[in-house]
Amino acid sequence: PRDAMxxxxxxxxxxYNILTADPRYGPVYLLKNDYSDGFYRIFIEPxxxxxxxxxxxxxxxxxxxxALPLTLPMGWSESPPYFCAATETSADLINTFCTPSWNPPxxxxxxxxxxxxxPPPDGRPHR
Length: 127
Description:
The two termini are 31 Å apart. Strands 1-2 form a two-stranded antiparallel sheet. The protein contains 4 helices and 2 strands. The protein is mainly alpha-helical. A hairpin with an 8-residue loop joins strand 1 (54-56) and strand 2 (65-67). 31% of the residues lie in helices and 5% in strands.
């Protein structure tokens, strides 16, 4: 049912944009970035890992085992803000690097895009 769609009309919009893409620019390519393990890619200071230490269960008479995480753990209430700060900092660094004086190489489709007619006033794609 439509009510069960997790991301609303996202799929409809993506499919519409693929359907109405101008074929002069070649085939449509999609990219999906999976950040499901993103938390585990952000390292923490060794001293901060003490606050996240966990005692693992052991059998009777065995020495206790303490686990110290070296990356952000899933389920820790402070992980999402740290993850957001890390991604925003990355974006800031990239934007700083891409200053107005930076002249990147042209994308192969740039010359074609420069000759494309402007979109019609109603905003609908060309057919």
